[in-house]
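Researcher: Go.
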Amino acid sequence: MLSMLTFARVVPMPTTSTAPTERATPQDRVRQVTVLAGAVIAIAAAAIGSGAFGGQPVEDAAGGALSATGTPLAPDGPAFSIWSVIYTGLAVFAVVQALPRQATDRRLRAISWWVLASMLLNAAWIGVVQLGSVGGGLVVIVALLAVLATMFVKLLRIAHTRTAPSLVTDVTVGLYLGWVSVATLANAAAFLSVAGVGELGLGATTWSVVLVAAAAALAVAYAAYGRRRASLVIPIGLAMSWGLLWIGLGRTTGPLVDEAVATAAFIASGVALLAPVVATLVARRR
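Model: Structure:
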């Protein structure tokens, strides 16, 4: 009996009590409603501004600087169909985060405002470009890239919660970040071209190859940094690979053929596609 009492003192007996479920705060409800309403407004504004319901398409704005043949780094037209996937993901995210049971989800608490900011910045980019300012568009898209990169880091630092919201968040943010990473380089090339310094002493082809190589390096960096979160880095790689592939295809036909840029873009597309797969497999083996 004495030994049993001693054991009980050393090893606490299991208890059946559980910690109380965290309750949603008024701030949680405000966040959910605001992000949902803001998403509707931002997505609608982006669709209208892009010419989806008539008006001037983005590729015709600013004198066609951002068209598929504006610079050697411009993706061909079909590349932009990825926006329909990204917008769908953002709409689903907005609905999921607004569900009552998701009010206290720590990942959604951490990034919902950032997601809303990204959607507003995307709508702002379309508006600025429609006004004819390629330089202004570059500033906005760099800010958008910074917001998405911040979300990327935050999501990596917070463990998955429920399966559905975690996957919706990771896949949507991953595709968004990957595509905007490529689009930022294309926007930068368009700005340099409009400013009359597109060749910068090396020639348009050389600089385009350099920027494509930078995109491939960035894809590898994303994969290496987020190697333990396949649900996030694989969508990034897919979106970057898609954009780079269409840069390559755009340089093989049409009025702006450039074999060197096309080859570099195809190689970079393959790197972007494989890097997250390799990185996550290596991380799992370790």
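Model: Residues 28-45+72-285 form one domain.
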